[in-house]
Amino acid sequence: MRPSKRAADEMRSVTLERGYSRHAEGSCLVKFGETHVLCTASLEERVPPWLRGQNRGWVTAEYGMLPRATGERMRREATAGKQSGRTQEIQRLIGRSLRAVVNLEALGERQITVDCDVIQADGGTRTASITGAWVALNDCLSWMKARDMVRDNVLTDHIAAISCGIYAGTPVIDLDYLEDSDAETDANFVMTGAGGIVEIQGTAEGAPFSRDEFNSLLDLASAGITRLVDLQKMAIS
């Protein structure tokens, strides 16, 4: 039995609230159960120096957790003077995931930065961030299209992510903190709406997992991401 009493293939309640921030060109408050992340997409009429003159744009991401997003207050990384390795790894993952479904040439010489700020954490913050970031990015591009800045072909597909793992010997989907902290295997899957795999992060926390177990996790992830993409489609409709 999972601590949450969910079935092995049952995800937490997921909501995607668009337009949460009045100032950002695109925004989404995403909730995976008790994990809540605010995603904002901001447009800048510039590109990184190494991209200047190449007639293409850039999409990047930043990630952070509010000091009391967890059970005990964490020190702000800005106060510490540097980002943790975990923060850098997650924000690079978000950026890579979004760029996988963006036509950078169609974007023009502009940069969109998606900020993912974790308000409350209960496992799966990176997967929630990616899923909500796509909605914020989509709305930013819609804002640009309404002003004749881009055409329809910038965003090529949906992108979403979900965690899966082996808990108490059983493959399960969408791990919360209690499961994640005690799982024998923990994996994150990033996939497109068409079912293409963008990234898989999988780690055996105890005994190595088998090919059959991995296939079970992939099947769970594929079904879960299909559900998340459906929710994205409903959110932007």
TrEMBL record:
InterPro entries reported in the protein's UniProt record: ExoRNase_PH_dom1, ExoRNase_PH_dom2, ExoRNase_PH_dom2_sf, PNPase/RNase_PH_dom_sf, Ribosomal_Su5_D2-typ_SF, RNase_PH, RNase_PH_bac-type, RNase_PH_CS
Alphabetically ordered keywords of this record: Nucleotidyltransferase, RNA-binding, rRNA processing, Transferase, tRNA processing, tRNA-binding
One BP annotation, GO: tRNA processing
Record-listed E.C. numbers: 2.7.7.56
GO molecular function list: 3'-5'-RNA exonuclease activity; tRNA binding; tRNA nucleotidyltransferase activity
Residues in Exoribonuclease phosphorolytic domain copies: 10-140, 159-223
SUPFAM superfamilies in the cross-refs: Ribonuclease PH domain 2-like, Ribosomal protein S5 domain 2-like
Domain of life: Bacteria
PROSITE patterns associated with the record: RIBONUCLEASE_PH
The reaction(s) this protein catalyses: tRNA(n+1) + phosphate = tRNA(n) + a ribonucleoside 5'-diphosphate
Subunit composition and interactions: Homohexameric ring arranged as a trimer of dimers.
Function summary: Phosphorolytic 3'-5' exoribonuclease that plays an important role in tRNA 3'-end maturation. Removes nucleotide residues following the 3'-CCA terminus of tRNAs; can also add nucleotides to the ends of RNA molecules by using nucleoside diphosphates as substrates, but this may not be physiologically important. Probably plays a role in initiation of 16S rRNA degradation (leading to ribosome degradation) during starvation.
Family of the protein in this entry: Belongs to the RNase PH family.
PANTHER family the record matches: EXOSOME COMPLEX COMPONENT, EXOSOME COMPLEX COMPONENT RRP41
Protein name in UniProt: Ribonuclease PH
